[in-house]
Specification:
Length: about 400
């Protein structure tokens, strides 16, 4: 088999990259270890920055998002009983789109089918070879048979647990990590969302987030200890704890119901530099992870894809390699700003086991600044909507 760009991983990064490259006449093959149904069953991000909305339009996959997505012009942060609203549009002229990652992935798969893009699912033992040679290649197994894919370029879109990052020599890679001492227990329920906008809650019992997918599908989270298991949490136990972490008047409006999805995600900040090594490029979670508090993960992944797709198209169509040469440094500039924002909001809004009264006072002062300062709200709004990254 031969192609121009081998893409390892068929999540949002790999799918979007394949879509943008094929629309520009650049041939790809996507190698994905799971089935399409497995990938589509994942429930993850829910917030799209304006830049991500633009990219979906550029890729020709924005129609359903505009029809079903919900534009949001602000969000709330609470500290005990105080509700602080940050108005994105007033502060920085921006908005975000509430539209689940699951739906983005579905839209991309359907668009890829329409253009006949090549996806190979249920691959195993993917290995990256000859990265520094003139022509690299990928080997993999499928259905008990070994295969070789010759290509010009390899893009690692295989997420945090993928193989691509590890193809960069250990003595070349620089890794930075912060593992948080808690996780997020998330549920989906076919109930009307608590409020029309998101609510991020800092409560003495821990963080909570009230989000949604649409007017009859709520997405709620609570901070839980890393030792907790999903089976430790009945629906009733979740609803009781979620309700306790919200201001009384807000909690009084909570409509509960059976959960249709329940999972616990660990939180970490992670960056692996560089994001290029020879003919290998990394995009998305393969290179970096942020805690979901800042709603940056998916948006940062697609920001990498926007940069790399333009660079690869210029390479093939204009014989211009400036984008490829500058990709890693340029992508990492935005990555580190998003990592900082996600870390700072996570630190402001969660209860850490080793925090003392001084730490909580610092959280209160930061939240009070959002309540009292236009400048603080503008800085938050610019990072949250992505315009400031
Ligand atoms: P992904 O991890 O989505 O995709 C990688 C793909 O590569 C997967 O399909 C995997 O099966 C495949 N793969 C892995 N190894 C492979 C191999 N060796 N060979 C072939 N294929 C391989 N972000 C937010 O903005 N908000 C959120 O609320 C949020 N919640 C999250 C909850 C969870 C549990 C997780 C894990 C992430 C969450 N994220 C959230 C971040 C998430 O949305 C990611 O940023 C986004 O999925 C990144 O997309 P990809 O880079 O494509 O990586
Ligand atoms: C979600 O709706 O899943 C969501 C929204 C905002 C976040 C994290 C998750 O910061």
């Amino acid at each position: 088999m031969r192609t121009q760009v081998a893409i390892i991983g068929g999540g949002p990064s790999g799918l979007m990259l394949s879509q943008l490259l094929n629309r520009a006449g650049v041939r790809t093959v996507v190698l994905e270890r799971k089935t399409r149904d497995y990938v589509l069953a994942r429930v993850r991000a829910g917030i799209l920055e304006a830049g991500t909305v633009d990219l979906l339009e550029q890729a020709g996959v924005a129609q359903r998002m505009h029809a079903e997505g919900q534009p949001h012009h602000g969000c709330y942060l609470t500290d005990d009983q105080q509700m602080i609203r940050v108005d994105f549009t007033e502060s920085c002229g921006q908005q975000v789109m509430v539209y689940g990652q699951t739906e983005v992935t579905r839209d991309l798969y359907e668009a890829q089918d329409r253009i006949g893009a090549t996806h190979i699912h249920e691959v195993e033992n993917v290995a990256i070879n000859d990265l520094k040679a003139a022509a690299p290649h990928v080997t993999f197994d499928r259905g008990g048979q070994s295969h070789r894919l010759d290509c010009d370029m390899i893009v690692g879109c295989d997420g945090f647990h993928g193989v691509s990052r590890h193809a960069i020599p250990k003595d070349v890679r620089r890794e930075y990590e912060r593992v948080y001492p808690f996780g997020w227990l998330g549920i989906l329920s076919e109930t009307p969302p608590l409020r029309p906008e998101l609510i991020y809650a800092n409560h003495p019992r821990g963080f909570a987030l009230a989000s949604m997918r649409h007017e009859m599908l709520s997405r709620y989270y609570i901070q839980v200890p890393l030792s907790d298991k999903v089976e430790d949490w009945s629906d009733d136990a979740f609803w009781d704890e979620f309700r306790r972490r919200l201001p009384d008047d807000v909690a009084a409006d909570l409509v509960t119901g059976p959960t249709i999805e329940k999972s616990i995600a660990p939180l970490r900040s992670f960056v692996s530099e560089p994001m290029r090594w020879g003919h290998l490029f990394l995009c998305g979670d393969a290179a970096h992870i942020v805690p979901p508090t800042g709603a940056k993960g998916l948006n940062l992944a697609l920001s990498d894809v926007r940069l790399l797709s333009a660079a690869l198209i210029a390479h093939y169509n204009d014989n211009d390699d400036s984008g490829l040469e500058g990709y890693s440094a340029q992508a990492l500039q935005r990555v580190w700003k998003a990592v900082r924002f996600s870390w700072s909001v996570t630190t402001m809004m969660h209860r850490f086991p080793d925090h003392d009264a001084f730490d909580h006072r610092m959280q209160q002062v930061e939240l009070q600044a959002l309540a009292n300062s236009d400048t603080a709200r503008r800085l938050f709004a610019e990072s949250y909507t992505g315009v400031g990254l």
